[in-house]
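Annotated sample (chain length 138).
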Amino acid sequence: MKTLEDLSNELKRKNIRLTHQRLKILEYLSNSKTHPTVEEIYHALKNEVPSLSKTTIYNTLNYLSELKLIKTLIVDDNEARFDAVTGSHGHFKCDECGKIYDFDLNTEAFDTEYLDDFKVNEKIVYFKGICPGCLSKI
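Output written by the structure step:
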């Protein structure tokens, strides 16, 4: 679990200075395995950071994404979620409970020979189905 101090020191080493609100959002994401939405982040932090607004969260998430400190996941047409794990991995969303799970994946192994004339900026792998917990209830 990363503390606010750990994150602050890590960012200082990269010459990135963040406000307290931005650090709290990054801390929450770094310690969350749920791939939260803006709404979930807001409800989780609003008591701890009373001055926090949804606009600040949106702006912070865009900024952190530009810095490549987080990833933005569009898992459904109108649902953006956020992930502090920026390394190569895939995502699985359960159709029953809605949870999103990370799984290890070597995206470099994907054959892109048909994209020789293209510049690939990102490889996103996303599966949908039913997780083991929900399958056991069926």
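Annotation: DSSP finds five helices and five strands in the chain.
Annotation: The longest helix spans residues 54-66.
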